[in-house]
Amino acid sequence: MVKKGDTLIEVMLAVGIFSMIAIAVVAVMSGGTSSAQTALETTLAREEIDAQAEALRFIQSSYLTGGRDNENNPYATLWKAITNNANDQNNVSDELLKYTPSSCSELYNPSKANNIFSQKAFILNTRMLGSLSSDADKKEQNKEAIKKIFYSADENNQKEVFNEAQIYPRLIYGANQEEANQNNSLIDDSSNNLISAEGIYIIAVKDQKTTQIVDIKETTPANTAAFYDFYIRTCWYGSDADRPSTISTVIRLYDPDATSTTPKPTEP
Predict the structure, then answer these.
(1) Looking at the DSSP assignment, which residues form a beta bridge with residue 150?
(2) Rounded to an integer, what is the distance from CA 33 to the centroid of its chain?
(3) Gyration radius from the chain CA atoms
(4) What's the helix, strand, coil split of the chain in %, to 5?
(5) pTM of the model
(6) Nearest to 83, CA basis, from 106, 63, 109
(7) With contact defined as beta carbons under 8 Å apart, do 154 and 117 qualify?
(8) What string of DSSP letters covers 67-129?
């Protein structure tokens, strides 16, 4: 008895069905991996944003509780450095506040409108916050520490700290930028030196006029803003993405100099 084999058409049909199933499985696996990667990057970006927000709140509260009139309170100096770097609300464009960059690179391009350098963006080295001391004999040490905590994109010697994200928004610590570029270092736990802020920055916008919340102190400067809005922003490219991913938040903090602990007496 002669046994017949599969015809060419049957073989081609079987191969075609197998190929379609294999392609579908690979596509699902690839999509799942991409989604997991995106979720991870988003989580890490939010953690960096939260860390910066908590650092700002900590500095403001430490200024308030540590003695606003005490020259030995280093957090007062740090708070003033941050707020002196703020943008005037009248000079801030609507496009900046909408935050819809067409690409991450334009934020780091000085020739583009609303770049981070012209808007005086800054970042905080959260690892160094605990190094400040209220001891009177440590004023010089505090000054040096503040230089390693507050980095402004408006300062020529600090612009190199701000860079476009290579992977996802992150702060990179280490010995130097060259070492970080070579090793693509995520975080160097052995150092507290901030050498790069990739894809994350903060823009401060001050209230356009002083608002009397309660009794303003007589020593309060006339141009003291009642509050400051801090826009904490990130920009990066996700896995196989050609459009930028952006996450941002804004927190409002009131300036201790614009308020008093003594309530204003009510008029009869």
Answers:
(1) 124
(2) 26
(3) 26
(4) 45, 15, 40
(5) 0.77
(6) 63
(7) yes
(8) -TT-TT-HHHHHHHHHHHTPEEGGG--HHHHH---S-SGGGG-TTSTT-TTTTT-EEE-GGGG
Measured distance CA(154)–CA(116) in Å, rounded: 8
- Region 159-179: what's the mean pLDDT? 83
Between 57 and 100, residue with greater pLDDT: 57
DSSP 12-33: HHHHHHHHHHHHHHHHHHHHHH
Place of tokens 């080295």: 125
What is the phi/psi pair of residue 63, to 5°? -65, -40
Q: Which phi and psi angles does 189 have, rounded to 5°?
A: -70, -10
Tokens 């690409």 belong to residue: 103
Sign of CA dihedral 5, 9, 15, 17: negative
Distance (Å) of CA 78 to CA 118, 194, 199, 245: 21, 17, 23, 31
Residue 251 and residue 265: Cα distance in Å, rounded? 30
pLDDT of 59 > 60? The answer is: yes
- What residue has token string 């005037």? 88
Over residues 14-42, the mean pLDDT reads: 75
Q: What is the pLDDT of residue 176?
A: 60
